[in-house]
Here is the input.
Amino acid sequence: MFIKRIIILLITIFIFSCGQSVVELEDTFEPKIVVEAFIYPNQKVNDISITKNFPLNTAPNAQELIIRDAKVTITDLKTNKEYNLVFNSKTFCYEYNSNDLIIEYDREYQLKVNATIYGKNLTAISKTKTPQKGFAIVKEKTVSGTLSYRQKDENGFVKNLPLVFKISEGTSFYPVSIVALDASEPNFIYDNAYREVKKEDVIKDLDNFKFRQRQIFNVNSSGSFYEYEITWTAIWFYGRYRMVVYAADENYRQFSLTYRNVQEFDGNFHEPKITIQGDGIGVFASMIADTVYFSIKK
Amino acid sequence: MIKKIILYHIIFFSIIIGQDASLSGFVYDKTTGETLIGANIYIQNINRGTVSNVYGYYSIPKLNSGTYQVNFSYVGYKTYTVKLNFKSDEDKKLNVYLEQDVIQGKEILVKADSIRVVEKLFNKPVSNIELTSKQIQSVPRVIEADLLRTLQALPGIVPLSDFSSAIYVRGGTPDQNLFMIDGTDVYNPEHAFGLFSTFNTDAIKKVEVFKGGFSAEYGGRLSSVIDVTNNDGNRNFYEGKVSLSLLSLSSTFSGPIGNIGSISGSIRRTYLDQTFAKWINEVPNYYFIDGNLKAFFDLSNSNKLSVSYFGSKDNLDFVLDKNRPESLGFDYIWGNQTGSVNLRSIFASNIFGNFWITFSHFNSFFDFDDVGVKEDNIINDLTFKGNIQYFYSENFNFKFGFEQKNANGGLKQDFPGGKVDASKSRKLYSAYSSATWKPNPLWNIEFGLRGDYFVSDRTYNNLDPRLSIKYRLSENANVKLSAGSFHQYANRIPRLFFVSIWTTADSFVNGSSSKHLIFGYERALGEKFQLEFESYYKTYKNIYSYNQNYVADVVPSGYTSDNIPIYNSQKGLFTRGDGYSYGIEFLLRKEIGSYTGWVSYSFSNTYYTIDGINQGKSFIPRHNRTHAINLVSTIDLNTFFTEIKNKNYIQEDKKWILGLNFTFFSGQPITLPSSIYLFTQFPDWNQNKNSLATFPSTINSFQLPYYSRFDFSLTYEIKYNGWMMSPYIQVFNLFNRKNVWFIQYKNEIKNGIVKQKIENVNMFPMLPSFGITIKF
Here is the structure.
């Protein structure tokens, strides 16, 4: 009797402790308006992209995600005047063409989007306050011209890429975009200092090597200048580079610092910080941009 | 608060008057001279008894004059019986040396423990489990015997995954567990990024685990206490042990220091860096080493001194590409060092004192020069503490204690664009007293009070009452109840890859509190089995979890002269919340005989309400495991069937030992993505493969499939002429079940079409390993 019980127990244990656990994913999809909206002082509004999210396990064409018939408005919260944006079928963005709306420095604006997505009427509202005037890259102290890869100083130490900019008062977030304009597999720096990269990995991960970034946050916004060094881990190709530095608002700071890091190391997900009320995800941000170009030679 | 504590003590002291005859002393192992913890001392004529405390000391006060027959017993040892004659007011001191039942070269018979199982249960604290080094080592494991992984097989204690030795006790998080080695707090007891714990099981004498409702003696944590006592050392002769596993080489030694004391030590080191790392480029140059040293001195009959040291170090010298001299790389070194000096004094036969000076130091150093990141994470804790145990009478025992903790340290970090300097100094003053009252043989009541005064940049003071009751329901069964209030002033920030940072309550983060209510039933089944049932309800207030979006929330406290932000407060690092847990646990355990181990089942649920998460609505945390089943068994194959037939266990000098471990957990809750969207991070970027972003579903609304695993080990133990050799083979996850750790989503855009790849990321597959242990 005892032996029989042991055998039954062992069989039960065997059944439970072998095989592959099956994950059955439930449909948790909720339609959302995806807002990718940027406004810049001294410029017209022409960079408002409105798309929709899509369920897991589907393979939509990126074009299908663009919402072309949304009602999109921008309100100048100082004058309370509302401006209706129209869809541009060439840029796939909403814009305001007349000259009576030029974005001002240090002023609040509200974006409102109404759209019907997957049969549901959705609304997304967000406010931004544009940065104050003053931000600019100090070109003479910032990387420019043509440089050798990992150039060294007179003592033989590697010299990083300098970046100096003038601070916009009240703005503490300065993201930096570094794009390799000649990014291609033949231009890849295989003889880099950091790791061996195979040709097929370059082709597969070209975008990862091409689009690089730095996030400079919590800068003393009452200061005047900020000095920063970009390490050579941002450089993976020979050729021309475009570096754009943004003086960005709080909305962009919160979203851009968190939206890509929504999966924790144990696989769990969490929400990014979103400053859109209602049914929107993404960001409505205001920023000032300044650009420098440089080249890297062998 | 101080007034209340004084009043409380006055009431107790007012009870303490008068003395009669008494019996006291230490109980030792005759072979090694080590003190025996939890030995039973029982006076037959009058049905009175006690158990030796954690230092092997016992005291039976208030005896009338006369002749008594006294039994001294301990599992696996021969019972010693002596007739003693007591005169009025006589303080009789008797140190007893119990002889092990195993006689070299002979078969001997072990029937059952000489004290009844129900008595042991009656004297055991509520929610307490004791483990010995042998029990820990007999559980099949991931390569190395590991204390915390053994604890993960106990009811009410669950892991998060195979990749972590961290334990979640009755819904509490790992930072709510108090780890102590020889009375000293250990802050980050982890090797290899949490894969193994730092406790060297060869050095352990005994582990006491309190899963809740613990006495006033312990404080500073909300959920549990893991109190590790290391071996004092062999008082009679030198002995040693060497173990070789696939991961490490370890050795222990122990021996007498003349006739005044003993010394014991152990050391363990991994050897991957000296082997595979030299041969295979992808294997990082990593090792860990740990060791401990403990010396015990008999200063006099009444004064014993022990000095204990524990040290551990993990060293990772990582180079991304070993063939490139300038390749990206970093150094990461971390480890613990603890030390304690413990004086045990017998002031009178019925007053036992215990005083410590302990020091605990944790340090991690990270240097990633290529990206300009340098980090120093330090904790220093110097503690003075003591307690007095007063064996007043058959009915009353008292304990009074104090603790004064001085902690300093914190995180210092330099990174491009900022500096962190969170170094702080904190003080904690605690005092406690507790009384054990047995009004008659049916009741065992312990009540206590603990007071804390914590000083940071603001002060906290709290009083924590504790109560524990046991009642004999019948000849073989007891019921038990425990309740208490608990406070914690430290929080741990878990980090990916990096070791955790400890912070304390201050003006931004409140102290945390918890209340426990436990009710249970325990029963002896025959002479060898014990059955325990416990149910609990536990609340949490002001618990803090790591803010996953902290990078967007931290605010610098100031700036250097060159405008570099300095962070020296924890504002924005945590999210505050409350919560509660409830559950039931069953445990059927057998500690003696040819097959030992336990079968357990636990049911539990935990709910948190965290500010700013899930719109302030409650949710189930990630570590919640509603159902857990564990079966842990060690079987002496030579005698298993003999015991089944004859109900007797015959130990032999050569034997095959089979270890089995079956684990079943219901699936963890997890937050999964609900949708994908396109977002290009910078306005000047074209849409690219990184433009796909994931948006999560409601927090932890999905449940992963159940987790299950069966482990197996087989050891051949040979004893010969004082030597013992035991080669072993073990297989973790024998049936190679693919337990899902999480689900990985990979998205890309190809030719304008969004493509997704969904993959299960599994935990450990089948992991065979082997090794050998030699004792001499």
